[in-house]
Amino acid sequence: MREETYRSKPDMTVNIAGVELKNPVMTASGTFGSGMEYSEFVDLNHLGAVVTKGVANKPWEGNPTPRVAEVYGGMLNAIGLQNPGIDVFIERDLAFLKQFDTKVIVNVCGHTEEEYLEVVERLADEPVDMLEINVSCPNVKQGAIQFGQDPGCLEDITAKIKRIAKQPVIMKLTPNVTDISVMARAAEAGGADAISLINTITGMKIDIEKRRFVLANRTGGLSGPAIKPVAVRMVWQAAQAVKIPIIGMGGIASAEDAVEFMLAGASAVAVGAMNFHDPYLTQKVVDGMEQYLMRHNIQTVRELTGAVQ
Amino acid sequence: MKKKTTMTVTEIRSLAEGIFSMKLRYPEGDAPEKVLPGQFAGLYPNDPSKLLPRPISICRWEPDSGELQFVFRVAGAGTASLAAQKTGDKVDMLGILGNGYDLGKLAGKRVLLLGGGIGIPPMVELAAALNGIPGSEVKAVMGYRDSSLFLTEELKKYGNLLIATEDGSVGTKGNVLDAVRENGVTADAVCACGPMPMLRAVKKFAQEQGIPAYISLEERMACGVGACLGCITKTVKTDSHSHVRNARICTEGPVFDAEEVEI
What we know:
Strand order of the largest sheet of chain B: 10-9-8-7-11-12-15
CATH architecture of chain A: Alpha-Beta Barrel
CATH topology of chain A: TIM Barrel
Number of domains of chain B: 2
Number of strands of chain B: 15
Radius of gyration of chain A: 18 Å
Distance between the termini of chain A: 29 Å
Shape of chain A: globular
Structural class of chain A: alpha/beta
Helix content of chain B: 10-25%
Number of helices of chain A: 10
Order of helices and strands of chain B: EEEEEHEHEHEHEEHEHEEEE
Number of strands of chain A: 16
Oligomer: heterodimer
Largest sheet of chain B: 7 strands, mixed
Largest sheet of chain A: 8 strands, parallel
């Protein structure tokens, strides 16, 4: 009898730093806008959280085109964090997202420490559930990635953000480091409430006919299924290194991929580049994870976290 | 409303070297209410290593049969896989995307349609739409590399057609504007789709003539729905989305008033 109950209704809720999500499926920053564009395809009420595209203190123009290129099993992007700045974001994008019964996680970007702090401060009294700090964008020349590649800098900026943030803080880590566990520990030491990984892996594509770089920025961030094994490995390594929750991402294309990240140690997952392949994917991952739990007669999705043996 | 739909290939044929025409039919009851000339769709290659939809402009929309015709050039492995589809095969499509030509602004006018190479296909749907508006006149000038022409019969149905070829084998030797000048073509507005150097020349031509130019831009795209900000074009004024000067080609475009973009 009890077994039948579990079969019909697994518990999909997860808790990240005190914030309860209805399920562990989020959107990866930069692949879902501020939810508006994909709300034509997916009922945002069904997602655990919407993670917005990075927002800075002022509008950013981003990089010249071409900004995107397809590669085998993935894509490169060098958008350069084009965004409308915090004022328009609050007025338009945040107002839009608040119509939905989902958690809102705002991705924050900046060139300098002051710029990050300004955005965090502006968001303090806004209806935002969590902040994700992008210290790992490979496509912005000044700042940004330095914070994410030096453990001392990462700990320092995490601590400074934590001092003024009113929402739980997720530090988003770059995979472009020698040892991800060092970076995970630095974020934890700085007081991060959670970490998310991986951001894109720096890559390059050359047009051999024209003998030119395909991207105007020359290098770009690699995402998509091509990076998934690297991401799963890094989530597992980070999970061995820290106690704070981990949001796992990198090439998730199915519910099975999401389960893999959970087993590696993630408490929640994010769907990224594959939204471009299938705009309905986030919903499919939610449904598929629920079916996986039923198939294996698992009571709660939380049991999956770190359950690899 | 945009959606990803599994379409059925009802016709596939080669029109010229490397140029293919593919007709895709909507499942019963799934067809959109309206398709505007200049809009496009994202066609997914049947190859799991290729994730992104290929943005391809709509050449014809046949509402009665629920069929869209696409004419595309094989530019790489993705479009090659589309060209290798057979009648009856399924192709996933994201559509209908973007904003087309504003027919309201073209109604009752003598409209010069300029297409260059693989920019020619959307001109067919535009010519057909304008032909259906009383008082509008279509003057089409299409530019090809050489004598392997395509879509000329379709275009002739809706108005006068002049041809330019790079090698001079058919019509005027040179580009579409050489043909316009050689034949003294005049118009009240110009609509164009083609390579960037052609569009820059068209913008200049329209300024000289004092007539509006509506141009269709292309760029490498990822999402096709305005989320990723991959396919932007520089604009003269601050854009409504990011409040910089970058319009999204997939969403605010692909058709722009030439005076509003910096190309």
